Amino acid sequence: MNPIAIAIHGGAGTILRALMTDEKEKAYSQALQEAVERGHRILEKGESALKAVEETVRQLEDCILFNAGRGSVFTHEGQHEMDAAIMCGTTGMAGAVAGVRRVRNPISLATAVMQHSEHVLLSGEGAETFGRKVGAAFEPDDYFFDANRYEQWQAAKAEDTVLLDHNASYLTDKKFGTVGAVALDVAGNLAAATSTGGMTNKKFNRIGDSPIIGAGTYAHNATCAISCTGHGEYFMRAVVAYDVSCLIEYKGMTLAEACHYVVQNKLKKQGGEGGLIALNTQGEIILSFNSEGMYRASKRNNEPIYVGIYE
To answer: Could you list the residue ranges that cross the membrane (predicted)?
Structure first.
């Protein structure tokens, strides 16, 4: 029987044990475990990796702990602009949305773009119009409101800066992050999905790496499935997700070697902080990051669930 596997992340950055309360640590660990269990159950039923990553990311989007969907951060204008992408490793088909507002589950809208349009990436009002056409769920602004997120926005506005949610320079016991999932199904197919609310106090409709195929999200059965998290500008410049795949395809590196080179060497040299989750058709899982921590979890076959937060 072919292996099945799933890995997820909930953001990477300055996540220190000394600054985490027991209550917060338990909440994050439980949320990660529940999400990875949901995805693994889908795979156990023989359903596709594509469905597993979408449903898993939907659950993380519905959890206010993470900077995606309901838990998305505030923009400079006090809005919530969300990005998401999904990719099928079997067909190479992909869908993404950027800068969408009031969409309950941006990852499902990205899936609709892939399945019901001739496009890959839709943005802003156009993506929202498409969402209404295909019956996507929308929520009022107060659905996305969180007091901690609001305080973070006010602090960033006062300093006229943008903040990564996992930056310890602000309210260090409040860590949130981009979410993502990669999965391998019983048919031997891979898929990847990523969703984010971006940076606190971001201006000018800034878009990060998450919805950019090849930068923050990528899947190809011949190589790997990748979902990234971190400072998006660096991940876009380095084309991180595709770079890992290329090192495997063209250089003959193993998954572990490729991830290590890109995250620990290439990104570090450029000043890029963050990490990625990776998976291949052999069921090998790599959870690589160059920051103080990364919210992460994985499960393969009938093995125990792994949940990690710190380095």
So the answer is: none
